[in-house]
């Protein structure tokens, strides 16, 4: 009996040591709203949607102190549809899935499925709507598929030094030809007081390979984005410019929204955004933006979008929102007013909903 008690005490002590060294957090977002869309070939569409402001998700984030300022880190994040309860895409942790090491002085290296530096620049620095609601910059900027996240990626983030930080990402294509499908991302930023500036570049090789040689040699998709915001306290101003060149650099979220056959996406375009947020009382935030898409190809399928929204913090974790956006397509362009999780079906959309973070 004595030996049993001693064994239990030892195991309990070891368990407490392990718990002291490991920190695992369960986090997530549940976002659902009423969406009304107009202007597409589908007619008037009214629905309850998930992830209007921010994609609904559940995730696990962990760190382990390895000593000497070094830690092991991991993230596993899965998306789901709050309106139906089903997963929002194939795979278990399709949003993010990575593991790595982080140093307080040398930065972090992580491996797995991760956001690209260019998308993070768009969503966290450029867009006052934070890539959500009807005013999402994803409606006109080239932000879908591999431009948002990339699998099989090795990512390095530098520590913050006097406001400066950098990021390098290399995505292995894992095809028979070494360069086929690979992706390269770079980001450099500066943040100090009210100013936040970031420049990012993304290059994705569009070749596909079987055997010893690529089946087709395609041009690469290249995106350069410059973004900044500045907090004047009474208003926070946003501005961004993106240059997209090559197939897939600026894909259309819904290429058949207005016609039976798919409209070709531009392979050479410039996109400009100006926007602002302003506090309304103690809990409200007014959001506005204007985006212009300039197609430099012969078809010259330009578009512009204006959007207005309002978010109200009901608590530190729960907020309600309302937003409206309208796109003007020119010369057969097929851009749609979507939101954070949906491509949209027409040139106008209205959202109202609730988001809870845990």
From TrEMBL:
Localization, UniProt: Cell outer membrane
Bilayer topology annotation: Multi-pass membrane protein
GO BP field: monoatomic ion transmembrane transport
Porin domain sequence ranges: 9-331
Domain of life: Bacteria
Keywords carried by this UniProt record: Cell outer membrane, Ion transport, Membrane, Porin, Signal, Transmembrane, Transmembrane beta strand, Transport
Gene Ontology MF terms in the entry: porin activity
Signal peptide: 1-20
InterPro entries: Gram-neg_bact_OMP (IPR050298), Gram_neg_porin_domain (IPR033900), Porin_dom_sf (IPR023614), Porin_Gram-ve (IPR001702), Porin_Neis (IPR002299)
GO cellular component, one term: pore complex
Coiled coil: none
First-listed, main subcellular location of the protein, grouped into a coarse class: membrane
SUPFAM superfamilies cross-referenced by the UniProt entry: Porins
Known partners and oligomeric status: Homotrimer.
Protein name: Outer membrane protein (Porin)
Species, as recorded: Pseudoduganella namucuonensis
